[in-house]
Amino acid sequence: MRRLQALSLAVFATVSLTLAAGCGEGGAAAGATVTVYAAAPLCKEAARSDGRAGDLLVHVVCLAPVEQGGRADLAAAGAGARRATEDSTAVAYLEAPGPAAPFSQSIVEAANIAWLKTSSGAAAMRRVRSALEGDGSSPRQAVLDEVG
After folding, report:
1. How far apart are CA 102 and CA 77, in angstroms?
2. 130: three-class secondary structure by DSSP
3. How far is Cα 102 from Cα 112, in angstroms, rounded to an integer?
4. How much is the average pLDDT of 23-45?
5. CB of 87 closer than 8 Å to CB of 65
6. Which of 2, 16, 58, 138 has its CA 20 to 30 A from that of 122?
């Protein structure tokens, strides 16, 4: 039993140190991947911007639609927002105008992830990529500083 506890403690310490090193003030390692979450209406344009920003790889994750017939599915909006907050590589969340926007905003911003309300996935991705290329701080903080 003690051996299992010691092993668990060692694994926890290793994971904690690894995560802390990845989120440090020195920024992300060259070739690291950062993730941008995009609402369904913005996804096609945003996904065209998958690629590089400086020495980082930028990956776009398309979220499920959250509106039908002008009504918001708040459960789906919350699920998408929480998915972004649980991803340590998330640097931005692109939201389309509509009734679900305020709901996702509060969840995403509480996790210190940049939240951009936009009708153009391409324009939002230009802003995100510009922030990632021009700042040596952590990628998430660079995007927050640029769009916040």
Report:
1. 10
2. helix
3. 16
4. 79
5. no
6. 138
